[in-house]
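Input chain follows. Return structure tokens only.
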Amino acid sequence: MRLLLAEDESQLAQTLAKGLREHAYAVDVVADGVAALYQAAVNEYDAIILDVMMPRKDGLITCSELRARGIQTPVLMLTARDAVADKIAGLDAGGDDYLAKPFSFDELLARLRALLRRGHDFLPSAIHVHDLEVDTAAQSANRNGRTLSLTAKEYCLLEYLARNAGRVVDRQAICAHVWDDNHDPASNAIEVYINRLRRKLDKAGEEPLIHTRRGSGYMLGLVTA
């Protein structure tokens, strides 16, 4: 899942981005509302973390402008203000949830998971594809009772494929949701990670679950004759 983090406190932004990446999220970081609006216009995000007190455009104005532009990406507002009136202002601006500083990183993760479930047609925390189970809360996967040992990026790719099980997803969509702005779309990283997942998913006697559609992309699921 790909996130936009708009936070002007440099140290906090770096800490949050590092922690989120360790939990299999692709993260783009900006320091003000103008940059956040630009990034949200040119990229497709699964969720946006938006600090209220930012330069150039604050989080409330930024969120309002996102909604005015028709961008319905779930937004989690961050602020040092925890008064009820401030929370109401954040929600009225179009925010979906509100987290006051200082906060627990585990709570941030839990709120993000809840927003992402709502943003993907209320998907359950456990996604089942044939004998594969992807647990989005624990960020783990097992097939036929066998726990898969996955890196953060491998898990992120598998979860995205699982959320779109039965549908072909192209390279552009995978880049948009699994990698951040530092990814070179001309590289073979997607093919490398697809092959790694295949080796971990498919053991002797098991049906292949990841299928290549030449010129189209990849699909997770069973292929029937």
